[in-house]
Design a protein that fits this description.
The protein is an alpha/beta fold. It is built from five helices and eight strands, in the order βαββαβαβαβαββ. The chain has helices at about 15-25, 55-65, 90-120, 135-155, 170-185, and strands at about 10, 30-35, 45, 70-75, 125-130, 160-165, 195, 200-205. The radius of gyration is 16 Å and the shape is globular.
């Protein structure tokens, strides 16, 4: 990593949108650290058990030790495929609620605290597929919880630049272009807002 260059953290590389976003950031030559499991051809990986607050704290400590505190954090909520209600297995319910949702809460809190302690102007971006999906009630409930959590943070936040992004429809490429354009410029008018692509946005905390 070049001296003085701070990393970008991506949480949710395992999702389709996360994978595509990671590819685009790599093409731009950014230093990317993936927080999560698995090995990726491009980018660095710090393992993290989503079900453990201690694991989240350890991963953030390792991030700071190896790379320094992140300049930007992309937090991606990716849906799990599920059977129609009520056939979804109980183990999937536990995975979505405990790991996908609670785990993100753990990690966001640890990264937020680390950025405060470092006195760094880290930007946080919350990214989700379309929130309401009539075919996947479990994932829909979790995605709505993720959105509500992000909006609550943005409405009370005065420390960092934050924006939420939600894709409506299937234009993934257009959505990623929109996310990268917004995050590159950090326009003040979109700070603390939830951007719905391609329809519009709603401001919070103003």
């Amino acid at each position: 990593m070049e001296e003085g260059q701070l990393p970008i953290v991506v949480i949710g590389r395992e999702s389709f949108i996360g994978n595509k976003l990671n590819e685009r950031l790599n093409l731009e030559g950014r230093i990317i650290v993936n927080l999560g499991g698995g090995e990726y051809k491009n980018g660095n990986v710090i393992a993290w058990n989503r079900g453990s607050r201690i694991s989240a704290k350890t991963a953030v400590r390792e991030l700071k030790r190896r790379y320094g505190m992140a300049d930007e954090v992309f937090i991606i909520f990716g849906r799990k495929w599920e059977d129609s209600f009520p056939e979804s297995p109980f183990v999937l319910i536990e995975e979505v609620i405990d790991n996908e949702l609670k785990g993100l809460f753990f990690m966001v809190q640890e990264l937020y605290l680390a950025a405060l302690q470092a006195g760094q102007e880290t930007a946080f971006y919350f990214i989700s597929e379309e929130i309401f999906d009539g075919k996947r009630p479990l994932s829909t409930a979790a995605a709505a919880g993720f959105k509500g959590y992000a909006q609550a943070i943005m409405s009370s936040n005065s420390n960092f630049y934050m924006v939420g992004f939600e894709l409506e429809g299937q234009d993934t490429e257009g959505f990623i272009n929109f996310v990268l354009k917004t995050t590159a410029n950090r326009p003040h008018k979109r700070q603390n807002s939830w951007q719905v692509y391609p329809k519009g946005n709603k401001l919070f905390g103003r």
